[in-house]
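Supplementary Methods. Inverse-folding protocol.

Structures were first reduced to a discrete structure-token string of length 268. This string, shown here, constituted the complete conditioning input.
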């Protein structure tokens, strides 16, 4: 059962931020909010200057999985890639956020004696880091990044072992993180694994296909642009095998891979 989110948004003070390679880790005070489950997300918006253009038209809130939670504080890892994330990344201690959450359904623990195997890419790492910290046994984490600067983000992962792949070969394996996953699943221990993954759509589709090929269960945390986070706008729907649709914000973001015919390219 997922923790209930308080109705409506609430003001939360930023307590600080840290640069981790190409990413910014934002610390936010939330002493009254419920403790989230790994894989859940929040809708974030700056209280001041949250808009653009001549009329300062407001931006939609941005959906972010949390990196860690505890001691009345939430941490989020983001990358400055556009006007909304730029505004969030520049927030300093004492400034405020509108915070809505925790929302959605998170990861479920392995069963039948299976072990967790994590696969993530870029800003898909935070929910996996939260999940690694929640598990009794620290799992193996396979993480993919663009280059050395982005690979610094692997430092947020608390896992028994972290293997890194980079597109340019500057750190770890030269290639895709799914190549590391394919090699791992080809080993004798793959039958006792559950794969947990989060990252860009192409990566998640490759994970889904690999796990189908090896008959390994997988839980995929899908990323999508969301307008509400409560399932009202139907802006984040993805098709499932039974010819229906699910809303990522309420039926996910964590969805069993075998429910999906494929991961849509626009599920990001």
């Amino acid at each position: 059962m997922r923790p209930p989110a308080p109705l409506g948004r609430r003001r939360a003070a930023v307590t600080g931020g840290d640069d981790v390679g190409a990413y910014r880790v934002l610390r936010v005070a939330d002493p009254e909010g419920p403790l989230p489950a790994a894989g859940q997300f929040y809708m974030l918006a700056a209280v001041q200057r949250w808009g653009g253009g001549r009329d300062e038209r407001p931006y939609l809130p941005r959906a972010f999985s949390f990196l860690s939670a505890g001691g009345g504080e939430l941490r989020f890892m983001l990358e400055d890639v556009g006007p909304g994330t730029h505004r969030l990344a520049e927030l300093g201690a004492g400034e405020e956020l509108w915070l809505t959450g925790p929302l959605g359904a998170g990861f479920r623990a392995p069963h039948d004696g299976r072990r967790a195997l994590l696969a993530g890419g870029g800003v898909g790492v935070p929910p996996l880091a939260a999940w690694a910290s929640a598990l009794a046994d620290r799992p193996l984490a396979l993480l993919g990044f663009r280059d050395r600067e982005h690979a610094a983000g692997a430092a947020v992962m608390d896992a028994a072992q972290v293997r890194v792949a980079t597109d340019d070969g500057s750190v770890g394996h030269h290639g895709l993180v799914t190549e590391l996953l394919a090699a791992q699943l080809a080993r004798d221990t793959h039958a006792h694994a559950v794969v947990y993954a989060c990252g860009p759509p192409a990566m998640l589709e490759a994970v889904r296909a690999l796990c189908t090929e090896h008959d390994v269960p997988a839980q995929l945390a899908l990323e999508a642009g969301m307008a509400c986070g409560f399932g009202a706008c139907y802006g984040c729907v993805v098709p499932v095998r039974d010819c229906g649709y699910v809303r990522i914000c309420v039926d996910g973001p964590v969805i069993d891979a075998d429910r999906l015919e494929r991961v849509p390219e626009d599920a990001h």
